Every structure is written in structure tokens, then in C-alpha cells.
Amino acid sequence: MALFPLSMKFSGDFVCKLLPIDTENTMAEVAEAATVHAVGMHVAEQPGKTIRIKRQGDEAPFDLNMKVKDSGLLPTETIELYFE
User: Fold this and answer.
1) Angstrom distances, CA of residue 8 to CA of 16, 25, 38
2) What is the 3-state secondary structure (H, E, C) of 40-79?
3) 0.85 cut: is pTM over it?
4) Residue 69: how many CA atoms within 13 Å on its side-chain side?
5) For 53-62, which contacts have Cβ atoms below 8 Å and span 24 or more sequence positions?
6) pLDDT tens, position by position, 25-55
């Protein structure tokens, strides 16, 4: 377990934010942590929709069960979050 900072950009938000997570977190847990910083504040809630995460510039999202340590992400790298 290690603290791992990522930069996050939620679709519809106008600000990139620093998101402190753990290398053992799954992408689903990262999505849950990110919602606290954007959804309901700068991004409208969309009940029933799944939040997906991808590396900035990538086409395909990460599997929600993938752990951060297995993602290949680097500290402070930017992830994009969006409702599917």
C-alpha cells in the first residue's frame, strides 16, 4: 500500500484536481473517490450510470477491477473520468 497522487479531469468539469489514492485501489474505488471532488459540485449527478476512467488521450477505459499498481499510470499522470 502506497499513497499515489493522480491528476483527474471529470468530463464536464472545468478544473483538473489532484486525487490522492492508494496503489491497491481498484479503478472502481478511484471512481468513487473522484466523485466526491466533482459530482454534485461541478458535474451533474447521473444516477444509474457507471463512471469510467481512462488515461488522458487513450481511447479505451481501464477495467474497473484493475488495481492502480497494475495500470501503468505514473504519479500525477492525468486520468479522465466520464459517465458511461
Assistant:
1) 5, 15, 10
2) CCCECCCCCCCEEEEECCCCCCCCCCCEHHHCCCCCCCEE
3) yes
4) 7
5) 53/27, 53/79, 53/80, 53/81, 54/79, 54/80, 55/79, 55/80, 56/9, 56/80, 62/27
6) 999 999 999 988 888 777 878 888 899 999 9
